[in-house]
Amino acid sequence: MKIKSAEFVISNTDYTKCPVTKEPEYAFIGRSNVGKSSLINMLTDRTKLAKTSGKPGKTQLINHFHINKEWYLVDLPGYGWAQVSKKLKEEWSVMIKQYLLQRENLVNIFVLIDSRIPPQKIDLEFIQWVGENGLPISIIFTKADKTGNRKIITNIANFKNTLKKTWDQLPPSFVSSSAQKIGQDEILGYIDQINSK
Ligand code: GDP
């Protein structure tokens, strides 16, 4: 897929105020600092479409971008800020879970996992929740600058093996590096495939 246009549409805290559309929508989510903004910029060939890491505790928003005037890319606020208050964590949880459960045109949730670190409980718990609710999911292992790197291969294998304990069939997964521009064709190709169904 060639990116012809990528436009910011709206930021929301409430899923009911998201754009009214029947076009397919793809959400991107992960632990804060997982490389989500960099990935969104890399995928869309833009340098500043998504803003890279802010400070913990800033307003958490559901950000809609319209791509090629055909589908929506949604940048969801990251989870896992250590310093964030319980209240903010609860607000995040309510907002995100409502959006994910209620948004009718949502066709896939890309959950981003940092390939440079071993499996994290918070990621596994989030993926578990997505699976239990029967939501469409794919995984993107980020920051795989050197795909042959033994540590990265081990981390990805460990993550998949951990998931295998509870998943009969593993969700589709991709490997990406925004620094090395790895994964763009595969991820956009996957979106294309779903869009053309
Ligand atoms: P976000 O908080 O998930 O949106 O993450 P950002 O995109 O802001 O990235 C967090 C940090 O990871 C920044 O310092 C980025 O430069 C770095 N980063 C993001 N993607 C990559 C990548 O593919 N490779 C490397 N080496 N670093 C990355």
UniProtKB/TrEMBL annotation:
InterPro entries xref list: G_ENGB_dom, GTP-bd, GTP-bd_ribosome_bio_YsxC, P-loop_NTPase
Range of residues in the leader sequence: none
Cofactor: Mg(2+)
GO molecular function: GTP binding; metal ion binding
Keywords: Cell cycle, Cell division, GTP-binding, Magnesium, Metal-binding, Nucleotide-binding, Septation
Swiss-Prot/TrEMBL GO biological process terms: division septum assembly
A Pfam family reported for this protein in Swiss-Prot or TrEMBL: MMR_HSR1
Domain EngB-type G as annotated: residue spans: 22-197
Protein task: Necessary for normal cell division and for the maintenance of normal septation.
HAMAP family referenced in this protein's UniProt entry, alphabetically: GTPase_EngB (MF_00321)
Family note: Belongs to the TRAFAC class TrmE-Era-EngA-EngB-Septin-like GTPase superfamily. EngB GTPase family.
PANTHER family for the chain: ENGB-TYPE G DOMAIN-CONTAINING PROTEIN, MSS1/TRME-RELATED GTP-BINDING PROTEIN
Protein name per the record: Probable GTP-binding protein EngB
Source organism (scientific name): Reichenbachiella agariperforans
Chain's gene name: engB
